[in-house]
Structures are given as structure tokens and as C-alpha cells.
Specification:
By secondary structure, the chain is of the alpha+beta class. It has a domain of 34 residues. It is built from four helices and two strands. It has a two-stranded antiparallel sheet with strand order 1-2. β1 and β2 form a beta hairpin. The two termini are 34 Å apart.
């Protein structure tokens, strides 16, 4: 991670923070996000799930699915917690990302 705090300067005369990633010197969330996300890795599904036509709660679930972060029983077992894994819909297979 780049040195985030190297981009903050303090004006001595008024003790006002100066955000050097913006010409105005004012902090913006956009410039901070851009700073943390660069360099970006492009993915085909990113524009699809982060569109305004999809509810945020659904977008977060989709993001977890695509990043393989959805807390399925199999994912929880891989973390070392032992559970009885069974799909609640079919009651035949282990709950996993592939089975969902």
C-alpha cells in the first residue's frame, strides 16, 4: 500500500490540512478512493454488478459470489469451523459456491 499519509500536508500559519491529491487542497472521497484503488485490475463483471439499476444489497451478494467470499458452509469449514453442511433447498448436497 502506498504511503497514504505522505499526501497530507499541514499549513503552518493556519493549521489547516491540505490534501495534495486535489488542486483545491480540500479532501474529496473520490480522490481518496482513486488513490487506494490504483492500479486497477479490470474485470468484466464489475460494471454489471455496480450499476445503479441493481439494489445495493443484491450488488454486495453478487460481489461476494464473484470474489468467492460468500460465507457458505464450505467456506466456513475451510476457515476451521466444523459444521454439518447441507443445502437447505435440495437437502442432498453440501452447500458451496458451485452448488448455489
Amino acid at each position: 500500500m502506498p504511503h497514504f499519509f505522505n499526501h497530507i500536508m499541514v499549513r503552518v500559519e493556519h493549521d489547516i490540512p491540505n490534501w495534495i491529491l486535489e488542486e483545491s487542497g480540500c479532501f474529496t472521497l473520490k480522490s481518496a478512493i482513486t488513490f487506494f484503488l490504483e492500479p486497477r485490475v479490470s474485470c468484466g463483471w464489475g460494471k454489471f454488478i455496480w450499476s445503479s439499476s441493481i439494489l445495493l444489497s443484491k450488488t454486495l451478494v453478487l460481489w461476494k459470489v464473484f470474489r468467492r467470499r460468500l460465507p457458505t458452509d464450505q467456506h466456513i469449514q475451510n476457515k476451521g469451523l466444523h459444521t454439518c453442511s447441507m443445502c437447505t433447498l435440495c437437502e442432498k448436497h453440501e452447500e458451496s459456491i458451485q452448488h448455489l
